[in-house]
Specification:
Elements: E1 2-8, H1 12-28, E2 32-38, H2 42-45, H3 51-54, H4 58-69, E3 75-79, E4 91-95, E5 104-107, E6 119-121, H5 125-134, E7 139-141, H6 147-152, E8 159-163, H7 164-169, E9 176-179, E10 194-199, H8 203-210, H9 215-232, E11 239-246, E12 249-257, E13 264-271, H10 276-286, H11 289-293
Helix pairs in contact: 9-10
């Protein structure tokens, strides 16, 4: 039996994700055991600062990836939405298991039931500009912390916005007042997907991890990550892309906006190759993205 060490953040959701990967591996390979290597990341320590001010999604991934590169762990389990689009030398994205529900959710109230001028808590510029598009009267306050902390803070605001799949995975789905349709709020790139990395020279582990790969999810996530990469890797502007499969074809929608949401460019494309994400990002940049990017 091979015991694999999996690097992960320490939140209950991150631990669930790592244990889920362990269960998937055991289901296809009884000779594998997994032990967790919990990594305390800069993003988890600095809860007083918005993510975009800390340097974007990489603040949750870099230290977990370092644990694999320096040999403390054999693999890393990430929320795919936290993984920067640029590959890290020495690592390979070996598996993307089947995706959960990619939609965002409101806790505390449905969108229609929020009173005029309601206060909504979210640490995401993307979520703010999308909600403001439908409800320009809303006020927003920052929200950080693990999922249990965020849900506990719902009583202090009219509503909080979280990822549906996080509550599903933690057995807290009853807290959801409304799952927002993707035509109301387009999800973050790779939201609800998991990403499993290992060292590029560990061919045996790559072969094991390939057995938990979900091909349709990989195609969608690759298209979304191609979109983000073309915008400039870890783009700090409000942006989103969401792909779905219709038969063998990809349907990809995306937007790019100014931080205040007053300028927003939206577009959608159909195709068969994940490079569709590159094409979509280029189209949005041609519509005025360079001015947004400064």
């Amino acid at each position: 039996m091979r015991t694999l060490r999996a690097a992960t953040r320490g939140s209950p959701l991150a631990r669930w994700q790592a244990e889920h990967v362990a269960a998937l591996l055991r289901a296809v390979d009884a000779d594998v055991a997994l032990e967790l290597v919990v990594v305390d990341t800069h993003g988890d320590r600095r809860l007083d600062v918005p993510i975009w001010e800390l340097g974007g999604k990489g603040v949750f991934a870099k230290e977990v990836q370092a644990a694999v590169l320096d040999g403390r762990a054999d693999l890393a389990v990430h929320s795919a939405k936290d993984l920067p689009s640029a590959a890290v030398p020495g690592l390979v994205l070996a598996a993307i298991p089947e995706r959960g529900d990619p939609r965002d959710a409101l806790v505390g109230s449905t969108l229609a039931d929020l009173p005029t001028g309601a206060e909504v808590a979210t640490g995401s510029l993307r979520r703010q500009v999308e909600l403001r598009r439908h409800r320009p009267d809303l006020r927003f306050v920052s929200l950080r912390g693990n999922m249990q902390t965020r849900i506990a803070k719902a009583a202090d605001h009219d509503a909080v916005v979280v990822a549906s799949t996080a509550l599903d995975r933690l057995g807290m789905a009853e807290q959801i007042a409304e799952r927002l349709p993707t035509d109301v709020m387009l999800p973050q790139v790779a939201q609800a997907a998991l990403a499993v990395e290992c060292r590029a020279d560990d061919e045996d582990l790559q072969a094991r991890l390939a057995r938990i790969e979900h091909g349709p999810t990989r195609r969608c996530v690759d298209a979304e990550r191609a979109f983000l990469a073309e915008l400039g890797g870890d783009c700090s502007l409000p942006a989103a892309a969401h792909a779905v499969l219709d038969g063998g074809a990809l349907h990809l929608r995306g937007f790019l906006a100014s931080p205040d949401g007053r300028i927003m460019h939206r577009h959608e494309l159909n195709g068969t190759d994940p490079s569709l994400g590159t094409d979509l990002a280029r189209h949005l940049l041609e519509l005025g993205g360079p001015a947004l990017l400064g």
